[in-house]
Amino acid sequence: MMGSVAIPSITPLCRMSDGCAFGSHLPRDIKGAFFRGLWEDGYDCSSLHPASLRASTYYPAARYQLFDPSLKAISNNPSAPLPTKPPLVAMSSSSSTPVWFITGASSGFGEAVAKEALARGHRVVASARSAASLAGLAATGAAVMAVDVTAPDAELAAKLAEAAAVHGAITHVLNAAGYILEGAVEEASAAESAAMFNTNVQGAVNISKAAIPHLRRAAAAAAASSAADSSSSSPSRPTPVLANFGSLGSWFGSPACAHYCASKWAVSGLSEGLAAELAGLGIAATVVEPGYFRTGFLNTAASGSKERRVRTAGPLPDVYGPGTAVGAVRGALEGYDNDQPGDVVKGARVIVDVLTGTGVSSGRQVPPRIVLGTDALEGIRKKCEETLALLKEWEDVARSTDY
Fold it and tell me: Where is each Ketoreductase domain found (predicted)?
């Protein structure tokens, strides 16, 4: 492994006269990835941050920051040797490279999308409840940070500001944090139900709220860049996108998973509302609704772990046993685990295509829903057909209630 490199806080990293602590306010676990990205990519951070992040405010005595490629330490070291690399160049204010902020990136679709985006040369800030769970993504070039999507507004606003500071912007937000609570409605405690809704639904609300100001800035920058470069052949800045994760469960209420389905219905409704609210601001919003994909999502976990498939702590086997609808779904989930038909790598590829208007989505607008998997496609179509038939059967009754 290469040794530590001392980066001066004034030049060449930054040209600000009173010094720069850009990154010093970031959590320790993402500093290394952040400075490694600046150093290897040849960026000058002077155009990326306001005076509030300068050394005179945060670290008045700082002269140097020690970059350790192992991501284990950054510290002041005035006696360290100066780097020999030539002065860095400023990041372009009209960058066409997408910058992602992803929650739930330690596994499943969150991790897969992060890997796909990185493979395309995009910039990624990956988050999870534990930054240690993101070591693999950090090793492949992502900045990583610990984020609890259920944290208070002020804390999440600060987290998103830190994330935006890493690359100077956020253009794509993907809310992938969530888990499934398995059990009949009668079996689940109020605390178990509330905890899942807090993560799956309120977590998406919280991150969306904290991210929208950054997406608005990205939209304004994209509009200004488009107006300035209307006669240029250079790539345009990406349209900012906010994407939440729904599910095939957004369309069906399933025995043993009613809580989860309700949470995903809520997320899909939230996303439709966001799409209408943000369209006039130059921001696209959508919901990803996958069927069953071969991730670790159905792996069982202890109650309260807030990830994967969590079983209720108070099952009623005499009431909801193998011969019941709840028992049948429990058995099906056991058999389906690690045998799902969907390929998460292919799914992640489509998600990145659609959210960036490339590949299979070239020339298309971001749709209000992104349905993934044959099972989801066929299941949702059947649900729509059944709903139309229901409306036809009961149309006279529905109309009879008008004035």
Answer: 98-296
